[in-house]
Amino acid sequence: MDDERLSEQDAQGLRYARELEGHISWLDSFTAAALGVLAVASGIYTYLGVSSLLDDNGALSFFAAISYSIAVSTGIFVFWSYMIRLLPAVRTAGARMGLFVSMLLGSAAIIAMSSWLNAAALAGAAAVEQHLARTVQDYQTSLERANEIAVSAQGLGRDVDRVRQSFEDLSEQEATGGLSGLAGRGAVFRVLRQKSDELAGLEAQISSQQPLVDAAFAEGNAVLSRMRSLTVEPGPIETRSVQFSEEAVRLAGVITQLRQLSVAPLVSRAAQDLSASVVLPELDGRTAENRAGQQSTITSVLDVLGQRADTLRVAAEGVIAMQPAADTIYTPISTADAVIRYAGNFVPSWAGAIAIDLLPAVLVFILAITQAAIRGGKAPVGGGETLTLAELRAAMRAMRDMEATMGRDDPVPERDTSPGIKPVELSPKPERQA
């Protein structure tokens, strides 16, 4: 019973192996054509990727791109033809490991010479647009930062106005004799008016900068708007990149202008000069006591002047110490470089570019698994038992052909084996004696 059951299992395994062989035979009829289609498709996208890297559009560049794409297509077709035939056929572990390592190296070479160019062809324009959009964001950040610093510097005008107003109030008090006790426009009054006039001139300079700051910021926003439209509008990306570069240069000039419009350095220098450069008038008191009072008042005014100057200087240095706008420079980039730089944003394109080159690897593994299953189904059965009827007929036909050929070369007389008739043996004739 065990032998019969084992024979039945062997027969099932044999039928299973023959069924798989039939499927493989049918699949082999178009596998080469499928590999050819994949190789040609990869070559076409490789040509598009190479063309985007070549600056010259002449005949030589065209033939160079065509030659490279044909070489890539040929290499892909030959490589996967080798793998799909040899890897499933080997049986030893060492041979399988060696071919598997070879397939890994070949796949890496295909990615290096073809897949990234395919990705450049699939998503190159979108990657360059991504680069333009990132550059617009950087320029916008720099513009807003430069405007923020300029506006903060303009805010120093309120501090200057407050200090100026305080000196004018003191001068009015001195005019009525509230400070030195001497009414009129004497030495103390002239010192206070001198500094209030200086601060008034500084305030006027700060106020005159405000329209320039507003105009520069408005111009920068207008340039940014044109740059944004260039990132999304239809048309060749090369042409748009050239226009984008021109707008970027213009915007860089606007940002530089905003930096120069900051009045913080001016206020800092004015604050230093406020207390350092004081022209003291001649004391005009009639008596020594009056002149001593004027001198004491002027000393107090100078102390106050130094404190207010320090306040202005600290405020101006706070603006100067603000983090400046980053220097943004637009660098043109090719489609291939853009795809590599922004690879994380174009994962589907990269996946498609690699899949079109490495899809045959899946076929290799499928065929290797199927061949292992076929060998497992035939293993318990002897070689003679695995012959099909067609193979047996072919073998018998070959044997008859061989017998016929041997019969013509060495003819053997046929014996009559009819019943009742005995074969007659002929004795050799005696040799004649001389």
What does the model show?
By secondary structure, the protein is mostly helical. The protein has 11 helices and no strands. The protein is 78% helix and 0% strand. Helix 3 runs antiparallel to helix 5, helix 3 runs antiparallel to helix 10 and helix 5 runs antiparallel to helix 7. It folds into 2 domains: 169 residues, no CATH class; 206 residues, Ferritin (Up-down Bundle).
Distance from first to last alpha carbon = 78 Å
Q: What is the helical fraction, as a range of percent?
A: over 70%
Instruction: Please give the CATH architecture of the largest domain.
Output: Up-down Bundle
Structural class based on helices, strands and sheet pairing: mainly alpha
Shape: rod-shaped
Stretches where pLDDT is under 50 for at least 5 consecutive residues are 1-6, 415-434
DSSP strand tally = 0
Assembly type of the chains comes to single chain
* Overall domain count: 2
Tell me the CATH topology of the largest domain: Ferritin
The level-1 CATH class of the largest domain: Mainly Alpha
Beta strand %: under 5%
Radius of gyration: 49 Å
Biased composition (Basic and acidic residues): 404-417
Transmembrane segments: 24-48, 60-83, 95-117, 350-369
Region (Disordered): 404-434
Keywords: Membrane, Transmembrane, Transmembrane helix
